[in-house]
Amino acid sequence: MHLLTAWDDPATRRAWTKLLIGALLGQILWPAAWLGLLAWYVGMSITWTLWLFFVPMSYAFYRTFLQWAYWRSAFRARRLLRHYPWQEYEAPESGIGNLPGVPDGYAWLRFPNPEAPAQPVTMVMHSHLRSVWWGGRLGRRATTERKAQVRKIWFAGDPRFAAVIAVPGPRHLYVIHQRSSYHPGIPADGGGAGPQALELARRAGVRVPAPGCSGPVAG
Question: Which end of the chain is more exposed for a tag (fewer CB within 10 A), N or C?
């Protein structure tokens, strides 16, 4: 891959467009499903039928409320893809839980530190958005066939901050990040990165320490 950034690849732009279309359809269809179920229940006017509609209505409402996160994730992905090139990693270390600092049930991967390759950086899939597909292939209990689907991973970003991961194509785009990279309530952490890496991350929309600050600062 000799592209300046991942966004220069037409296949990447098509994959991101599918991501955006999925978020758009969800923004339309989930509220419509909730309103439709509500109207159906009101139209029947039978109290006991509430139990038939309670679960699907609750889930539709939950997905309606959640849709903003899909939009946010899609545009975070675009900023990262516009500033970082794709890199390919063969069978990076990964798992689900069973690692200090990683909550049980959360999938994680390790990638080389760009400025110290011998020191791997752990990245956790904090967001469950679109993580089910990945989690079913990164754990020890995954079948050999499923593990083979994530043996090669494309990576665009900096593991000290945030990145888009995907399987070759690219397919199954997912924004993986350190919690401090986007969470305003957690001090921004430079992760030992140099000025150029910090500036690149800042342009990609990541929260990083202000110039001249060597450690975490409140954002």
Answer: N
The pLDDT tens digits of the residues spanning 82-99 come to 999 999 999 999 988 888
35 three-state secondary structure: helix
CA–CA–CA angle 24, 28, 32 (5° rounding): 160
d(CA 56, CA 61): 9
d(CA 46, CA 54): 13
CA 212 to chain centre: 29
Q: Which two tokens stand for residue 164?
A: 């888009």
Q: What is each CA distance from 149 to 51, 137, 168, 178, in whole angstroms?
A: 40, 7, 9, 24
- The model carries a pTM of 0.81
Q: Are 149 and 167 in contact (CB under 8 A)?
A: yes
